[in-house]
Amino acid sequence: MNGQDIRETYLEAGEFFASVVDQVDIDGWDELALGEWCARDLTGHTYRAFTTILSYSAKPGDKVDLESPVDYFLKAFESLADPKMVAERGRAAGLEIIDDPRMMVRGFAMYVKNKLGELADDFILATPVGGIRLIDYLPTRTFELVIHTMDLAKAVVVDAEPPEKGMAATLEILGQIALHRGHASDLVLAATGRGGLPNGFSVLP
Q: Class assignment of domain 3-191?
């Protein structure tokens, strides 16, 4: 994908997320959604796909440490993927949107769209795991938006189909992570009907 396609794919994934949030019943926010997260926590975690771009762009990085979306994930797995920390960040983000999740998600979707209009593809974002170009970071947020919006839709029983380009980007990243983590053969064999996967199999830590 070129830079414009990557941006459009991210924004489409953001709209997919917002459209599902719009359909959550007012009494559905405390429903169990994913692990120990309720629907509000999961929505808060997912809306960080907007807020991290805004916060990381506020203090530009001075060098590129991560050359690709998969580089970012592999590095993040080392320090940011602790289940307790992830769960707590989700709950904290859920509290940020507690008053009006729909308004907050729609509002930040617009903020980040406007911010992207100000940033060049090679703008370096200073993330907690190193500097990465905007255009290489956006697919990681598309990945989060697609997967967690699917989680949310399932939890609150909303019929929603992920955008095709966002799903393609997500599958590409999953395949690359599987390759790096030694799970590619298992994944390929299972996907082509030549084998099964153990219960709970994941290419993620």
A: mainly alpha
